[in-house]
Amino acid sequence: MFRYLLRRLALTIPTFIALMFVTFVAIRLVPGDPVEVRVGERGISPERLAMFRHELGLDQPVWKQFADYCVQLMHGDFGTSLATNQKVLTEFAALFPATIELSLAGMLFAVVLGIPAGTIAAARRGTLFDQTLMGLSVTGYSMPIFWWGLLLIMFVAERWGLTPVSGRIDLIKYYFEPTTGFMVIDAWLSGQAGAVKDALHHLVLPAIVLGTIPLAVIARMTRSAMLEVLSEDYVRTARAKGLPAWRVIGLHALRNALIPVVTIIGLQVGALMAGAVLTETIFSWPGVGKWLIESISRRDYPALQGGVMLISSIVIGVNLLVDLTYGLINPRIRHG
Amino acid sequence: MYRLTTAKSKFALASLALAATLAAPGAASAKTLVYCSEGSPENFTPALNTTGTSFDAARPVYDKLTQFTRGSTQVEPGLAESWTVSPDGKVFTFKLRKGVKFHSGVNGFKPTRDFNADDVLFSFERQWKDDHPYAKVSGGKYDYFADMGLKDDVQAIEKLDPLTVRITLKKANVTMLANLAMDFAAIHSAEYADMLAKANKKEQFDQQPVGTGAFSFVMYQKDAVIRYKANPAYWGEKALVDDLVYAITPDPTARYSKLKAKECHFVIAPRPADLPEMQKDASLSVINQPGLNIAYWAFNTQKPPFDKKEVRQALSMAIDKAAIIKDVYLGAGTGAKNLIPPTLWSYNNNVKDYPHDVAKAKDMLAKAGVKTPLEIDLWYMPVQRPYNPNAKRIAEMMQSDLAKVGVNAKLVTYEWGEYRKRMQQGEHITGMLGWTGDNGDPDNFFFLRGCEAARPGGQNLSKWCNKEFDSRLEKARATADMKERTRLYTEMQQIEHDDAPDFKIAHSVVYEAMRKEVTGYKQSPFGSHQFNGVDLK
Amino acid sequence: MAEIAAPSTAAATLPQDLSPLRAFWAAFRENRGAMFGFCVVAVIVLLAIFADFVAPYAPNEQFRDAVRAAPMWADGGSARFILGTDSLGRDMLSRLIHGARVSLFIGMAVMSVSFVIGVLLGLACVSLGNAVDVAITRVMDLIMAVPSLVLAILVVAVLGPSLTNTIVAVTIVYLPRYVRLVRASALTELGKDYVTAARVAGVGPARLMFSTVLPNCLSPLIVQAALGVSDAILEAAALGFLGLGAQPPTAEWGTMLADAREFIRSNPWLVTFPGLAILITVVSINLAGDGLRDALDPKMRRS
């Protein structure tokens, strides 16, 4: 087990190095100069331009810039954002909880609805429920979520007024210091009446939009896995013994069906990050996805590099965790 | 800003917050004005910034020596209650206001003295002297200080006594007073700077601002919200609400939805397509004003056949300006005939704009000896600018208009920085750009057509040098006599119109929308937002 | 939507002497959802191919007198523009039809290029030795580590926004799937007896790969390719939505959505139609792809 863990970890190191190199090179190739892009119609004199570029180290040869960057990274310094002059890590840390909160909510939505739906569909295979679910599922993962989000805002938030339009909390009614960065937790910590409910209220629509595709995938996966398990001998034995259906399905079948489902959940993390970019843009959710997009248009090299590295590291980390969990659940590979 | 506190102190903080909010009266009973802004500030020191978003975020907290009267381009006393200008226009002596207090309690700072000349010296020397202890903090780029001519043209800034400051320039510049009313000239607290320097926390200076303004800074949550509270001891027009909140909402549709849902009271930049609906809504009020800007299509007079005035005039008549205003500006623009917008003093309304006359245009081209089809290029910006919502669309419309008079325009664009650089070098035959005014002085626009700016790398994109125009430009810069200056600028507009170095497209019209409950707001010609003197019914 | 009987029954109902193609078609036809999807896809493909004849107007023709006209059935609409016009007065229906051409082209292009490269790389992993295998797998891991949209945006930012570069970006993002699939299938096949037999018989490595191993990996690969088209269309539309895809005036559904976003409150039709077009196309391709998977290989049936 331990050896397995070590081996997996070791394999990720070259990936990291390659990631560093590729992001560095790719971002240098992006046309547009980070100094020039912020200059207005007045323009900038060549001397001042040269001075700024020198201060940012942009006039050094590329290999030297890369070497400096590597050394910096060793010290845990992901660079300083060109736009705000704050450390990239600080900016990322300030924004990341929002993205996590959104992703967790989306995943919760997907799992809480998806697994039961898939299970029931498998149990009632061939019925109207099953067919409708499959139809909805295909629609779900074919959905362009940027459009889906716009539609939901148009109807649910605006026309029917069921949820707020954007933001994380009602700024007029509630004010509390961001201790953890998770609005729901901070709201609870603040003790203000109705704050938690308000935070959740703001979370609903973005979570639904972000969680739609994972929901469709999880429901489907659960259904398939359950179907396979339900046709197994031991299930038929349990049924023949006279055990009630729910107990057979809920306890015996589901536990075994969950193995592939857990894998899928883990694999959705990367997709969630990608989806978060679009969702955060549409809902003005102050997370890292939106920040990354803005950094690209601002040619904020350090922020972009740091951001891509941090996000990818997290995805790698989660995948590692999923692999380990899978190894734990599935005894067959535990001793790989 | 984000405080990285340890786990233990976080918990303590949480418990304290819990206790505090349980003990204190609810924040909801105070009057809170929420402004939906469109972006995050880079920091809270305007001297370091160039974007309207950053200026808006810092403005509630600071004052300047002089200021623009709320809602106009008139200069009035600010932290300097009076001043004298020497006859040669080079020496400005300011008498500072007595008894002005800096904000107390922000980031643990408690001022021990009132505002005085030391603060003025600190605020300017930081931007001026490369060896100033704070010069390099937070990036050290003071663009406006350099661009408005202060870096090179200031000879000395001296403190004559605790309440008198004297600024001496190398050459006369009448626009100095207007320049000092701009955001970059905000006055900071030298005492706060010292406190942070001693605690080795200089970078906090630009993240948690201390000023003398109508509001004091409370907190900023990145990309989400900025909070201010009213300064009860403010010397000027006080804040009429207790709390001010900037809700950072980049999407215009989201801003509109929040406005309707009363989640914000005031929004910036509503979408032109949403305006008709907003204007019909009885719970909202929509105001507008031509912005202090101009969008133009420059002809490079150094490249034939654009060296011929008749050709330039002909093409000016070939373009359907009204269609552009209608389809691209969606009504949020007014056709321009002069370089300066109608809101600026000395605007010459007697100038008659070129009509849209395709037949006459063809005729003039033929008479000027131009063989059609004529091949030209048409440069357009790849990004949205305040004066031009969609340069590509305008370029496409112009292209099809030009085709009708036998001119084939090839559309060209580059990355923004590249684009601007090349146009300033004069690489284009024709190209679009524009300008947003900085200080409400006509010189700030007209210098764009001066001979000095026509050099390669200069901002005169028509590379046009007209002696009549230029001599008046120089004269108007040197005299402080408003009547004389107005006369000169009026004549210059006619000269420019007749020689047609460019085709003037439009001034964008700036719309702002707010709830009917908001009273006392005055729209600024500069597109800036100020919330003191604004009340919520 | 999938009404497939248990594997044993299907095997029993299909006569054993039907050619594989006929057997496949019979199984496919049984699946109502898949047939529906297939028909819709066929219609869309036909529309795309014959766009120039089917569309009432040219997609880039601007009718300045009918800017943002409403669809025929709404207030102020007319039969002149069945689905209304966009912000520059261009006919929505024509643009949607031509947009089908663009989107399908992107989908097919991405699918074919990543298919070919994926197969080559996957087979290379398996046949060219351990070093090559590790190198290629690491690169694929790298690509998969960066969230898909972020990577696509980076690639487009470097190369510049255009239709071609969208195809390049989306291809890079989806490449790992094909490579991994081919590699995994090939590895499985390589352990089998018939391959060992062929090797012993003296078949050279190239021929071994292409004529012996590859055909047996095809089933999952074809399914992945079919479903890959829909993924590519979605990703390209997302790029178009962010302004990084096909540039105006090209009629691409995602770009149309981006243009229309301004008018979401005033002219919601402009937002509804391109989104619906994307949804319908992608759903149909997915339905057909699922049917393909179910019919091709009963063992792979997810039901």
Any overview of this molecule?
The complex is a heterotrimer of chains A (336), B (537) and C (303). The model of chain A has no long low-confidence stretch (mean pLDDT 81). Chain A contains 13 helices and no strands. In chain A, α4 packs across α8, α4 packs antiparallel against α10 and α10 runs parallel beside α11. With 336 residues, chain A is mainly alpha-helical. The termini of chain A are close together. In chain B, strands 1, 8, 9, 10, 11, 12, 13, 14, 17 and 18 form a ten-stranded mixed beta sheet that branches. A four-stranded antiparallel beta sheet of chain B has the order 4-5-7-6. A two-stranded antiparallel ribbon of chain B has the order 2-3. Chain B has 17 helices and 20 strands. Chain C is an all-alpha fold and 303 residues long. The longest helix of chain C is centred in the last third of the chain and has 37 residues. Chain C is elongated, with a radius of gyration of 23 Å. Classes of the chains: A mainly alpha (336), B alpha+beta (537), C mainly alpha (303). Chains A and B meet through α2, α4, α6 and α10 of A and α1, α4, β10, α8 and α14 of B.
Helix content of chain A: over 70%
Distance between the termini of chain B: 32 Å
Order of helices and strands of chain A: HHHHHHHHHHHHH
Q: Main sheet of chain A? A: none
Largest sheet of chain B: 10 strands, mixed
Strand content of chain A: under 5%
Oligomer: heterotrimer
Number of strands of chain A: 0
Mean of all residue-level pLDDT scores of chain A: 81
Bulk shape of chain A: globular
| Shape descriptor of chain B | globular
Beta-strand content of chain B: 15-25%
- Name the pair of protein chains with the most residues at their interface, and give those residue counts: A-B, 57 and 62 residues
Specify the number of helices of chain B: 17
